[in-house]
Q: What sequence folds into this?
């Protein structure tokens, strides 16, 4: 029966599946809390302090005791943890090795550098893990930083009543989060520094003391140094294309402040699953062909930058639309021309440019696919 368990239905000694998260109740002696057993809502919360629990991971438990069974509004379920299964996050593919390493690093408090091509899921991964681990997620786009002070405040100029200009400092989300973290020491903050390699070198250098044992950053609003509370953890992301190492920008001393973690595109069958879940109107064979051609592009050493999962998803959005759902092979190639070639420098009809190379790869892959289809 779906819906909620009644206390009478639960059997002490039986084994159930559950998922624990960080207990949001301040001051509780139990670090972890779960609300469901075998996918159905439990009549009382399940609490545990077992060290083996990983927030967000499916866990097998044996029911030991129902506390205050007679009270609908009180009590809790005491369980014995049998084993902790892999972390699962709804709608997100987690590489088992990357996600284990990331969990360890997040628990250790080290700064983390996620290094991988654009659209390989770095942002979704960091955000989803933060939520699962009960951390506040603070997104900061480093590509918009021009000067060191931009990390904490932007300057806005407005006219006063008399017409003369007044400059105001407006706190960035990062500054707000750092101040808030100082106040609420129980909460943990994950500051995501997106595209760290795209901010200018001097600005990045000014951020470095925030990332080492000094843990201070200059605050232009108060004209003094702001300490970074230890409940703040930094995760930076860089989009490193194949040939970008020369222009990559982050030097060894800066890199050394991070525990690096390489992220790659998800395996083809997982990308197909993900896209099919999001766009069930598109046939499996079409989605498979989109992903197959994307991987030909990603693996080709002549093409400098990667090809985001946003690109494969965009192709599926076209293919799912009633205007294009009966697209023939030529139309299919046209869709990839905009979604794939359009993301690379140059133009599809200039064979020497990246976009031109991608167009050739698309046509070759479609020829090969037609031959296979013809043989079937
Ligand atoms: N492993 C993944 N699981 C789920 N979605 C993914 C994954 N990788 C990429 N995506 C999808 O691709 C898009 C780009 O992901 P994003 O995290 O923004 O990439 P990045 O930060 O590496 O540039 C998002 O829409 C996301 O839903
Ligand atoms: Mg990103």
A:
């Amino acid at each position: 029966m779906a819906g909620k368990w009644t206390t009478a239905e639960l059997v002490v000694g039986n084994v159930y599946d559950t998922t624990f998260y960080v207990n949001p109740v301040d001051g509780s002696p139990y670090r972890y809390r779960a609300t469901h057993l075998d996918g159905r809502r439990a009549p009382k919360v399940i609490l545990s302090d077992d060290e083996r629990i990983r927030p967000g991971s499916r866990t097998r438990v044996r029911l030991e005791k129902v506390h205050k069974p007679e009270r609908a509004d009180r009590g809790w379920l005491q369980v014995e943890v049998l084993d902790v299964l892999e972390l699962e996050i709804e709608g997100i593919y987690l590489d088992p090795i990357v996600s284990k390493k990331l969990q360890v690093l997040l628990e250790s408090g080290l700064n983390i550098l996620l290094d991988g091509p654009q659209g390989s899921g770095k942002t979704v991964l960091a955000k989803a893990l933060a939520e699962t681990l009960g951390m506040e997620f603070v997104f900061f786009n480093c590509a918009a930083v021009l000067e060191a002070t931009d990390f904490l405040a932007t300057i806005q100029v407005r006219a006063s009543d008399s017409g003369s200009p007044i400059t105001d400092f407006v706190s960035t989300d990062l500054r707000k989060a750092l101040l808030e973290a100082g106040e609420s020491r129980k909460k943990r903050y994950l500051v995501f520094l997106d595209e760290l390699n795209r901010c200018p070198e001097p600005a990045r250098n000014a951020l470095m003391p925030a990332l080492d044992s000094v843990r201070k950053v200059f605050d232009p609003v108060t004209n003094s140094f702001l300490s970074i509370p230890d409940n703040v953890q930094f995760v930076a992301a860089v989009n490193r294309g194949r040939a970008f190492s020369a222009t990559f920008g982050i030097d060894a001393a800066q890199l050394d402040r991070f525990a690096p973690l390489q992220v790659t595109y998800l395996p083809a069958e997982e990308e197909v699953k993900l896209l099919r879940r999001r766009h069930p109107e598109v046939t499996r064979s079409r989605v498979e062909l989109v992903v197959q051609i994307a991987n030909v592009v990603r693996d080709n050493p002549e093409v400098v930058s990667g090809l985001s999962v946003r690109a494969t998803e965009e192709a599926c959005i076209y293919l799912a639309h009633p205007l294009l759902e009966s697209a023939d092979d030529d139309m299919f190639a046209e869709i990839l021309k905009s979604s794939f070639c359009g993301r690379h420098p140059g133009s599809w009809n200039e064979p020497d440019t990246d976009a031109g190379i991608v167009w050739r790869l698309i046509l070759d892959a479609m020829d090969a696919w037609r031959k296979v289809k013809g043989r079937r």
